[in-house]
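Weekly structure sync, notes
Attendees: PL (lead), two postdocs, one rotation student
Agenda item 3: pending single-chain targets
PL asked that the sequence for the first pending target be pasted directly into the notes so everyone works from the same version. It is reproduced below exactly as submitted, 382 residues in total.
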Amino acid sequence: MSDSLPADSVGIVTPQTYRFDTPIDLACGQALDSYQLVVETYGELNEDASNAVLICHALSGHHHAAGYHSAEERKPGWWDSCIGPGKPIDTDRFFVVSLNNLGGCHGSTGPNSNNPKTDKPYGPEFPVVTVQDWVKSQALLADRLGIQCWAAVVGGSLGGMQALQWSLDYPDRLRHAVVIASTPRLTAQNIAFNEVARQAITSDQEFHGGRYYDHGVIPRRGLMLARMVGHITYLSDASMGEKFGRELRDQAYKFGFDAEFQVESYLRYQGERFSETFDANTYLLMTRALDYFDPAHDFGGDLARAMTTAQCEFLVLSFSTDWRFNPSRSEEMVNAMIAARKRVSYAEIDAPWGHDAFLIPTPRYTSAFSAYMDRVAREVGA
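Predicted structure, written out during the meeting:
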C-alpha cells in the first residue's frame, strides 16, 4: 500500500468483471440471456470460505465501496469509513465482496450496456429489475466465488432491503443480516418523491424516450433535478441548518432567481456532479425497485409471516433524524422479527444527519456496528 494512503485503508483496489452466460429469469417475466457484474473484493477468503461478507449498495451506489483505484485518487470508496483494517467490517478478518447491481451504470449490465440482439445500448428496453432479482444475481455470484454461506449480508437504505430479502430467499446461505437505515416497504410519501424524480428525468427534452444515447446527449437537467429532490430527503432539517443556515453566497439579496443562498448553490453543485456520473435510465430502474420492495405483499401484508423462513440473526440500526426511512419503520421490522421468533439486535442511533447518517462514522454507530461484527467474526473463527 502506498505510504500516502491512510493506514486503515484497504489500499489500491482493482475492480473485477464476472460474466454469466446462463440466462437469468427476472420477476418482470423477462430474462437476460447473458450479463456481467463488476465486483471489488477486500481482504482474504479463509480456507473454508466462512468469513465472506456481502456489501449491498443503495440507490446511487456501486462496487467501489472502499479503498482507492489509484494513489492519486482523493476520494475513497463510498463506505470506506466502515470497511478496512480495524473498522466495523474489518478486512483483517473478513473477505468483503461489493458489487454493482444489475441495471447499474458502473460496469455491470444495465441500460447503457450494449444489447447483443441490437448491437446498441439497451436504453428503455432494459427490463425492470427488483430487489429479488438483485439477490438472485448475488447468489449466482457467490456460487462463482465459491461462497456457500455468507458470514453476513450488509446494507444501508436500499442495500438494507437486499440484506432483508437475502434472509427470506436464501435462508440457509447467510448467518447474519445487517439492515441499516432501511424499511420493509416505502410509504406513499417515499413513492411520491421517487415519482417526482422520475418525472423530472422523463420530461427533460433530451430524454428522447430513454434513447438519448442514440442522440449523443443526456437528460442533464432532469437528472440534476432528480438528484436535488433526492438529496433534500437524505438530509435532516437540523443538518441543513447547521451546514448552510440562511447564508447568502454574497452579502446582499440580488432580487433575482439565480442561486443566492448557499444551500441553493450546494444542491445545484450536487445535481450537476451527479448528472455527469450517473445514467438516467438506471435512476428510473433503481427508484422503481425501491417502490416495488414489499416482502409482506404475498403474505397479506403480514411481515411476521413473511419472516418465518428466515434462519439468520439480524442487526437493525436506525437514525433518529432519518425522516426518509423513519426509525418507526425499522421498529416495524424488529417487531415482525420478534413475532416470528427470530434473533434480532436493534439500536436507534441519535445522529443529526438524517438518512445519510449511515455513511457517517459517529461513535455510537461505529461502536454498535463494530461490536456486532466482532461477534460475527468470532463465530466463523476470523
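Discussion points:
- The radius of gyration is 21 Å.
- Residues 32 and 238 are 45 Å apart (CA to CA).
Action: rotation student to compare against the earlier draft before next sync.
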